[in-house]
Description:
- By secondary structure, the chain is an alpha/beta fold.
- It has helices spanning 7-44, 62-76, 92-100, 115-122, 142-155, 199-202, 204-210, 234-240, 266-279, 290-299, 328-339, 368-376, 384-389, 391-402, 437-452, 458-462, 469-489, 499-519; strands at 2-4, 53-58, 80-85, 104-107, 126-130, 164-168, 190-194, 212-216, 229-231, 255-259, 283-287, 304-306, 317-320, 344-346, 362-364, 405-408, 413-416, 422-425.
- α9 packs across α15.
- Potassium ion binds at residues 63, 129-133, 167-170, 172.
Amino acid sequence: MLVAFSGGDVRAAEAPLIESGQGDALLQRAAHGLFGVVLGLLREAGLTAYGATVVVLAGSGNNGADALYAGERLLRRGAGATAVLLSDHVHAASLEAFRRAGGTSVTLADGTDPGELALHAGHADVVIDGIVGTGAQGGLRGTARAFVDAFNTAAGARATRSALVVACDLPSGIDVETGQVDGPVLAADATVTFGSAKPGLLLGAGALASGEVNVVDIGLDLTASTPAVRTLLHADVAALVRAPTAQDQKYSRGVLGIAAGSSRYPGAAALAVGAALATGLGMVRYLGPDTVASLVHQRNPEAVASNGSVADARSQAWVVGPGAVDDDDQRGRASDAIGSGLPVVVDAGALPEVPDRVGPQVILTPHAGELSQFLTARGVDVDRSAIEAEPAHFALRAAEMTGATVLLKGFTTVVAAPSGTLFAQTDASPWLSTAGSGDTLSGILGALAASLAEDTGAARRIGVADEDIWAAIAAAGAAIHGRAGRRAALRGPILISDLPTDIRAVMADLYEERRLAAAM
Ligand SMILES: NC(=O)C1=CN([C@@H]2O[C@H](COP(=O)(O)OP(=O)(O)OC[C@H]3O[C@@H](n4cnc5c(N)ncnc54)[C@H](OP(=O)(O)O)[C@@H]3O)[C@@H](O)[C@H]2O)[C@@H](O)CC1
Ligand SMILES: [K+]
């Protein structure tokens, strides 16, 4: 699991070490970790340090010092390195070490046009961003801002430019706590972060600017702090999902009730049912109008369908709401399922049925517009754009207000538990923002909820508190959905009705990971 502590907590954990005279040792450990990741990236690009061209961008703080010490190590391995100094008072010892190893440096003075230097950096093999780290205050300013603007213009966007950009601790320009960007940002191909990830690397625009996040252990003790954000990795999702055993029968593997679709939106039901079956469980019971049930049956004859009541359809979990609009029977089923005490995934048309207080086993899956309506109906007047700017804040607010688990959809999906625990998953493909995508997410979440509803060891397997298991299940569902989308996008624009094929392939990968982990 990728665990992010706030910049403040990381700095507090550094403080006693710095006071006891270990400040330089910390810088050296950080620089060594950064150097190691750069070497690996060069190797992946078919290069070695010997002969590689490196540009180190150094600001006035310790972030610049880490980058310069990493540059020193690359110089000693035969790289050619130039430092662009964005302040006239960079960390003296690291600059001295960089120069002694053969590096050259140039100071960008206030008011000087950074265009030529930016062009030079754009032609390097690697650019190490040591402009600002956890000491950044607000959006980039002064020479830092001018240089990043010029670099983005000269080198182009990530994926189109030739230089690999490696962020030291965090990409300069993001807010360390929220990932919000105010002004230019130096988007990285990879970020090497020290002690632990920071929330801004996992949330919002910061998650998009960070590339692959590598955490370097520099010996900080963070055990007394509470993680601010967590991201489930492949191994965590693999440890969570439940594979059938020889003792299982269809009822013990999990039965999911789905009250989705309406005569206006019949397709949503078929998509949710198909995705649930592909995720793997014992049975899906579909409840809804006969016409919709026959569409569900055409695609998935294994689903058991009726137009009966929630009370009569024994299940371990429910999905309510996808495509269920202007349908009083579906509304009644949503209300009954939410009131049943069973895990329930509540989407779209069922969100207005949520009472004031529920338990964390009720998983709400709004997008920003739906969360805005949901919160406004509860007296928190907030529009869609405000939620998009601070998704974690508003998801937590909704979870704390209602007691539900709140999964807020987006390119980065955030999941808030009522306990305050927060997950962020950036597994998705932009191709997934298409009609029907949310219906398949509901199906995946429902299947996980049904198959894990009675699994008392699930939270322990991935190291979360029992009270946060529903948030972890929701985060795992977002990860599976996102990866299925990425896989599907390899074949071109995603056809959501095809997604079950990719969901099954993602599940197969997860079971293989689980098997390999057990064999170790
Ligand atoms: N502590 C340690 O021992 C360890 C620390 N570590 C490393 O140190 C980093 C933290 O170092 P830090 O505290 O020196 O702050 P840092 O982010 O380098 O720069 C702050 C300076 O930047 C400037 N500045 C601020 N905002 C700005 C803006 N918006 N736009 C432009 N400039 C801005 C401002 O300088 P000024 O402009 O005032 O000259 C300010 O003083 C951390 O991320 C990690 O990499 C690790 O190696 C582990 C050991
Ligand atoms: K940086």
